[in-house]
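Entry 14. Structure prediction run on the chain below.
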Amino acid sequence: MNKKQVRTILDTMGDMFPDAHCELNHTNPFELTIAVLLSAQCTDETVNKVTATLFQKYKRPEDYLAVPLEELEQDIRRIGLFRNKAKNIQALCALLLDKYGGEVPQLHEQLVELPGVGRKTANVVISNAFGVPAIAVDTHVERVSKRLGMVNLKDSVLEVEKKLTKLVPKEEWTLTHHRLIFFGRYHCKAQNPQCAACPLADVCREGKKRMKSASHRKPII
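Output returned:
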């Protein structure tokens, strides 16, 4: 894919979703880290419902460690994998207090060492909390970038990230991450993509396939 094609895709998504942003509710880097950790295999909508009360009860790392693990599990039980996530949250808070004075570190290599924090979570935190350009690859980003031919279908999540950071200007990494998510969440959905009304259907693998299939269907008389 050449730069002109990439520019067309980025500008089109920009026109469609000019206000794309992180939809996880948070007021500081610590809350964002907890929210992203909770969001693995779970919708942002569900996470926001849980954190609405969670963040009122737990303000600092010390608060999460002041309760039994079972109590924290109950507080997040609507979240998928809640037992494992509760364990990771307490381990993460202990490490923050032990190593970083209770503050979320700002370096990517430090973030990925925190329990429950992978590369995607670290990229979300550094870009949204600390203003460091990054492209976090979630299911939406991976699906959309593969459908549009920006990356190869068999590329791993890490390969997708590396290729996107080469294709997209660095100053647009974070914004592109949000727009890819909005495009995938509200338009190019996994099961029912809106191909017929998509301005990028002509460059999309999935769009071309579906439109071709539709054109071959015999009209019902």
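The CA atoms of residues 12 and 157 lie 24 Å apart.
Filed with the rest of this week's runs.
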